[in-house]
Amino acid sequence: MKLLRFLFSRIVIVGLMLTIQLIIFIMLITKFSHISVRASFICTIISALVVLWIINKSDNPAYKLAWIIPILIFNISGGILYIILGNKKPSIKMRRELEKVQEKTSELLKQDNKVRDEIEKENPIILGHANYINNAAGFPIYKNTEVKYYSLGEYNYEDLINELKKAKKYIFMEYFIIEEGKMWNGILEILEQKAKEGLDVRLMYDDMGCISLLPLGYDKKLEKKGIKCIAFNPFKPLLSLAMNNRDHRKITVIDGHTGFTGGINLADEYINEKERFGHWKDTGVMLKGDAVWNLTIMFLEMWNSVRKTDEDYFIYNPEVYQVETIVNDGYVQPYGDSPLDEEIVGENVYMNIINTAKKYVYIFTPYLIIDNEMMTALCLAAKRGVDVKIVTPGIPDKKTVFKLTRSYYPQLIRDGVKIYEYTPGFIHAKVFLCDDEIATVGTINMDYRSLYLHFECGVYLYKNKCISNIKEDMLDTIEKSHEFSKEDIKEGRRYALWQAILRVFAPLM
């Protein structure tokens, strides 16, 4: 019975349709090229022109290489295949709609000059970090915000449930993955009740992220319950990488004054109610205060780019409800990253932290698939005496990706970076910590998909009380992990060849 359900599931049917399309495409191109020498010559010229075009683009060199090699190998069909599949930007319609919304919201995100001046006096380097995020992503830095760090998803879930029950005006939720089970059912019960009470309850989930977890039309089912719902960028079984631009964010905003984000999706493995890859280690933060406004605008931008609902965004500002909080807990800057532009905000925030480090940088990441710039930054930090520690999974969720992650270990270890694998299971957290002062917690993996293709978010923290909690958690996690040494690195020509192939095509995975 389970086998039949799997065979007739949406993901299998969609995968089959895509495979058939790809086979037909290759057959047609091959047949066309064999019609005459002229046809073959035309296809070869197209591939050559495409290679020249790729070389002159401003894309990451690794992404260029990942396409140039197969085009040169399959010179007859490679160029045309790139034209169909090589576009990693969102569809024109998606771009236009988001740009329209962002024109409206940009006026609502103004940097408080008093906060800016305070940071400048305290640490000009941190001001540079904050200025970069504000200038590149459009999200200012705040004070008057309390931050609570969660070292596990189950701790986060407990507070999320309690805060949802307190909602009086609205609840906005945006998640990559939702799966029916204890975690989601507990949340859904509250959302239904709040919708009946007349609150503005909205949910956005990524259609691709949930393709094997939720039935087709689940958004319509929730609409009938009074919950406004959007399945983001509905996955269509067509050969187009526009489907690659997924909403990987995890955001909850309650009445504008309370927000949650981090790596935690809404499925039972994230709170260890279901075991998939050993113990699931994930992290998140709860914000209370002024900085939540960035998360609110982030959600409203995405929502209104798909479904035009709001004319006045300021009505969702907590000032409207006269919520008064005076919190002295450092500086907080929630930020978003979008494939809309050429700015890789997520990676640049990470790079700024690494390049700033004087004593140490500790990193949690489920995937370590990095470009040359990130590799150089990590190795250079270690060479100048910074204690660089990276924790990756001990039990992988994707074996090929795990092997690809391990392919980066030798150079990092050789240059002094310490790599640890989380022995109890899978670590899904995305956290950077630096010198007891700087941290970021969010949704952004250290791979090409997160850094270049997905909509992501994070929270930049400076001198917050929770940073000591983050450090305690990271040291405890490192203690439970196995340090990967030179002796653990596999040797052999076959293994090296396989790793080299994986590295070349890493940007496309």
Can you tag this structure with a few keywords?
Endonuclease, Chain A; 17 strands; globular; eight-stranded mixed sheet; 509 residues; alpha/beta; 3 domains; seven-stranded mixed sheet
Q: What is the CATH architecture term of the largest domain?
A: 2-Layer Sandwich
Instruction: State the separation between the terminal residues, measured CA to CA.
Output: 32 Å
Structural class: alpha/beta
Mean pLDDT: 86
Percent helix, as a range, is 40-55%
Count all strands and give the number: 17
When the domains are counted, the total is 3
Order of strands, widest sheet? 9-16-15-14-10-11-12-17
The largest sheet, given as strand count, sense and whether it forms a barrel, is: 8 strands, mixed
CATH topology of the largest domain: Endonuclease, Chain A
CATH class of the largest domain: Alpha Beta
Can you count the helices?
Answer: 19
Oligomeric state of shown chains: single chain
Rg, Å, rounded = 23 Å
The CATH superfamily title of the largest domain: Endonuclease Chain A
Give the low-pLDDT segments.
none
Instruction: Describe the global form.
Output: globular
Strand content: 15-25%
Give a structural overview.
Helix 3 (37-56) runs antiparallel to helix 4 (61-73) and helix 9 runs parallel beside helix 10. It is globular and about 75 Å long. Strand 5 (251-254) and strand 6 (258-262) form a beta hairpin. The longest helix has 24 residues, at 10-33. It has helices at 2-7, 10-33, 37-56, 61-73, 78-85, 92-105, 113-122, 124-137, 153-166, 182-196, 218-224, 292-306, 345-356, 372-383, 399-406, 409-414, 448-453, 466-479, 493-505; strands at 145-150, 170-175, 200-206, 228-232, 251-254, 258-262, 279-281, 284-289, 331-337, 360-364, 387-393, 418-422, 425-427, 431-434, 438-442, 456-462, 482-484. By secondary structure, the protein is α/β, with parallel strands linked by helices. The mean pLDDT is 86. It has three domains: 14-85, no CATH class; 145-333, 2-Layer Sandwich (Endonuclease, Chain A); 345-508, 2-Layer Sandwich (Endonuclease, Chain A), CATH 3.30.870.10. The strands form three sheets. The protein has an eight-stranded mixed sheet with strand order 9-16-15-14-10-11-12-17, with helices on both faces. A seven-stranded mixed sheet has the order 1-8-6-5-2-3-4, with helices on both faces. The relative contact order is 0.12. The chain is built from 19 helices and 17 strands.
